[in-house]
Specification:
With 99 residues, chain A is α/β, with parallel strands linked by helices. Chain A contains 4 helices and 4 strands. The chains are: A alpha/beta (99), B alpha+beta (145).
Chain lengths: 99, 145
């Protein structure tokens, strides 16, 4: 299960995820971000409630990161230890802005 | 931490499902139940779940290009480790033979393909492939207590 919350204000979007970002839930996350991507300049992904991530989730994050690179950029906040380990193992910790 | 029967080999549990990624929750629950019964920590359970997801979804997406098929998950606890075999009757394919992705590339050059298998290799203690009796068999092992 994954809960996706989105707040857009003045061209900045904050997308908060709670639960599991896996093969079954990644399409929901992708749809929520992609429908807003044209109208935003900056994107923040808040992973405070994110407990689990697999490569299906990484795939969406990479795709969104590529889309945002030529705009105002993207950052990821509140990454827990287990999710961070996956970011580190895959080198995602080097290509993402994590605060 | 209490570790039940860590010196004994327990019975193998078997789950057979359609090779369909919609079956993922059922597959994970099957293995998580065994892990919880053996007091596996949440952290290690998550590492095992991720590996299992990657390998099961790989079968669901690629093993049967012609149509539908099956996958079987055989799990047991042995000497404080979980041993999981993923078996399918699809085309012979060794996912471990693929070169690891270059994880040092920048965003623009990054390829996502092969990342799932790479994560599994990193998260499990052992992972091996064989083609036996017309079946792909991926066996992975990880210490749980």
């Amino acid at each position: 299960m994954l809960k996706v919350d989105k707040i857009i204000e003045g061209g900045k979007a904050v997308v908060s995820l709670s639960g599991r970002l896996d093969t079954t839930t990644a399409p929901d996350f992708e749809a929520a971000v992609k429908e807003s991507i044209d109208s935003i300049g900056e994107l923040t992904l808040d992973f405070k409630g994110l407990e689990y991530i697999s490569s299906a989730g990484l795939r969406v994050i990479l795709s969104v990161q590529k889309s945002m690179k030529h705009k105002g950029g993207m950052k990821v906040i509140h990454v827990n230890e287990d999710v961070m380990e996956i970011f580190e193992v895959t080198g995602f910790s080097d290509i993402l802005t994590i605060e | 931490m209490l570790c039940i029967d860590n010196k004994e080999t327990q019975d193998v549990r078997v789950l057979r499902v359609d090779a369909d990624d919609k079956k993922l929750p059922e597959v994970l629950e099957f293995v998580d139940t065994l892990l919880e019964e053996n007091n596996c920590s949440m952290k290690v359970q998550m590492q095992i779940d991720i590996s299992l997801e990657e390998l099961f979804v790989n079968i669901a997406h690629y093993a049967y290009p012609e149509g539908n098929g099956w996958a079987e998950i055989r799990a047991k606890i042995e000497d404080g480790s979980i041993v999981i075999a993923l078996v399918d009757g699809g085309r012979p394919y060794d996912p471990l033979a693929k070169p690891d992705p270059d994880i040092t590339l920048g965003v623009e050059d990054r390829q996502i393909g092969g990342l799932g298998i790479f994560i599994s290799k990193k998260q499990m203690d052992e992972i091996k492939y064989s083609y036996t009796d017309g079946h792909n068999v991926l066996t992975m092992k990880k210490k749980i207590c």
